[in-house]
Amino acid sequence: MICYRAPLVVPVSRAPIRDGAVLTVDGRIAALGSFSRLRGQGSRIVELGDSIITPALINCHSHLELSHLAELGRKNYGPDDDITVWIRALLAARGKEVDGEKIKAAADLALRRLRVGGVVLTADIGNVESGRPQVAELPEVMFFLELLGFNPPAADEALGRLETFNGACAAHAPYSTHPRLIRAVKARARARRDIFPIHTAESAAETAFLATGGGPLRLFLEERLGRLDFFTPPGCGAVEYLERLKVLDRQTLCVHCVHITETEVEILARRAAQVCLCPGSNRFLRVGRAPADLLLRYGLRPCLGTDSLVSNPSLDLWREMRLLQEDNPALAPEEIFKMATINGAAALGREEFGSLEPGKDARMLAVRCERLPGDIFSFLVSGEHQAVWLEDYNGS
Ligand SMILES: [Zn+2]
User: Fold this and answer.
1) Closest CA to 146 of 308, 344, 267, 269
2) 288-322 pLDDT, tens per residue?
3) SS3 for 34?
4) Backbone angles phi, psi at 273, to 5 degrees
5) Which of 125, 247, 331, 374 is the most exposed, having the fewest neighbouring CB atoms within 10 Å of its CB?
6) CA of 344 to the centre of ligand 1 (A)
7) Cα-to-centroid distance, 125 and ligand 1 (Å)
8) Does domain 2-55+356-392 have CATH number 2.30.40.10?
9) What is the Å distance from ligand 1's center to 389 Cα?
10) 358 C-alpha to ligand 1 centroid (Å)
11) Cβ–Cβ < 8 Å for 272, 250
12) What's this model's pTM, rounded to 2 decimal places?
């Protein structure tokens, strides 16, 4: 049994503990509390005189298989560019022949970077089964095969993949996925008790397309698919549309939720749906910012995701916290830290992570600080510190 002692332990699920200690045994937390209470119980004491112990982070949305196209995530889009400019660039780049080994190597590197950034679990969305990285010592990956297909023939093809794939699946987005396919992916997820991720209300173009059937997404889709006679715009926002399709519940993970009305926030709350915010990607694509304060006011517990290197120059979850705070100065930093930890664990149904409690996973972080900050959570979400894994801690 190892006893980690630090000037501050931040369990997240309860108040921080000054001069705290965490006892671990066989990769699990055995106990935590004040050092004075636990000091006799560890066979070995590791003193972290200059650090705060926190849970490891959880990235609830990424597309690791796109990491080889990271140059797209470093471009600058103009203020007048709508999201279809970026979608076109992405599809053009993906259309080129690429060596599978290169895709895999870039995905593995991205996953290693997530680990360096303190991420213990990441939800990874991919369109090809072979694009998923599988390196045991890296953060755990929950892989979702993403299906899309807007016109009936493409939706039928995707339904075929849904039947043959033996794993969890995601639907891409309301503007790219036929309603029949969205419902089928969700029905399968319900039967398997899987999380069901879907990009939701990311851009103004998506909202316009669902509301009226017009806008830049219509032009884009017509270019690719011809006439859209098969599609009747629902005449509402993305969340309301998903509500009508009856796919919102506790296991549905709505990613982005930038362009949603208060009525839609209320719907999400009523269904206890999960919301994943991606402030870095939203900022990069200039699509706006999600109403984080409103989501919290309605009792939702958003989690955080980096999205991919194609729409974000970095896969650093600490940076996501900092950007979210910048975008929402009034948001309590503690709520932001919860999004990157305990809320993420709940959203993915992996509650062995996300907080420090007896019985939970013992992969924890040591966040360096020379002296204890006055406002702990402001310090944590500022990103102005170095965090290392407790197992890699080797003193200051
Ligand atoms: Zn995404």
Assistant:
1) 308
2) 999 999 999 999 999 999 999 999 999 999 999 99
3) strand
4) -70, 160
5) 374
6) 16
7) 7
8) yes
9) 27
10) 34
11) yes
12) 0.96
